[in-house]
Specification:
Length: about 230
């Protein structure tokens, strides 16, 4: 299944999918194939349900901003707010730094999120945060730098590392869907905690990000009846 999906995607390959299907950089081929050799449950899931669809994102202000907008609200609500921000011309860092929390709030944002976005935009326009340069830093340094920004926690940083920077060992253990996916994969009686998830996936290093994609895919199909892009 991994091989069939790879051949159908080759013309549209991006950095994340190159690592997932072709070469993860550790001499073991693509991350999915390498992870399947480490864990027979992963191999079985990939064979049964196929590979997850593309969820790669640009390494940009917009990606981080949308993550902040989406915190603690439904996907539909987050999309609606973002669409209103686009209509108001408030999705680029240069425009947001010239705005105010009161103006930002007219799009449906809470005051706190408006302040988060203004703070993030200001860091970028001031040059104190260089998003392209993050791709050249060790994973731990990226995590530390991002979580220093008000409004960006470990979950958002992990997801940015995985989807925008193609960091295949990013592992957002606090994600409930990820925990539920592991429960399904390993036929556990209860949903594992974040700490338990760390232990269970320890032998997946350095492919835990690929494992996260598999778990979200499994959860989406078996529980949500949706694709991983909707989670």
């Amino acid at each position: 299944m991994v091989t069939r999906t790879l051949h159908s995607m080759l013309p549209f390959m991006n950095a994340l999918y190159h690592k997932l299907f072709v070469d993860a950089g550790y001499g073991n081929g693509g991350a999915f194939q390498a992870l399947a050799k480490l864990d027979e449950d992963v191999a079985r899931a990939l064979e049964t349900y196929g590979s997850p669809p593309d969820r790669s994102l640009p390494a940009s202000f917009g990606t981080l901003a949308r993550a902040i907008v989406g915190q603690q609200v439904s996907r539909a609500a987050a999309t609606s707010i973002w669409n209103r921000m686009e209509a108001a011309g408030l999705t680029h860092e240069s425009a947001i730094t010239k705005s105010s929390a009161d103006i930002m709030m007219t799009t449906g944002l809470s005051r706190r999120k408006a302040e988060y976005l203004i703070g993030l935009a200001t860091e970028i326009t001031a040059g104190t945060l260089d998003l392209p340069a993050l791709a050249n830093l060790p994973s731990g340094d990226v995590q530390t730098r991002l979580t220093r920004i008000r409004g960006i926690g470990s979950w958002t940083a992990d997801n940015y590392r995985l989807f925008a920077l193609a960091d295949l060992d990013a592992w957002p253990v606090n994600d409930i869907a990820l925990q539920e996916g592991m429960k399904l994969l390993k036929s556990l009686e209860t949903r594992p905690s974040a700490t338990e998830l760390e232990v269970i996936a320890e032998h997946w290093r350095p492919y835990r990000g690929a494992g996260a994609l598999v778990l979200w895919h499994l959860y989406g199909i078996l529980v949500r009846k949706v694709t991983v892009a909707d989670i």
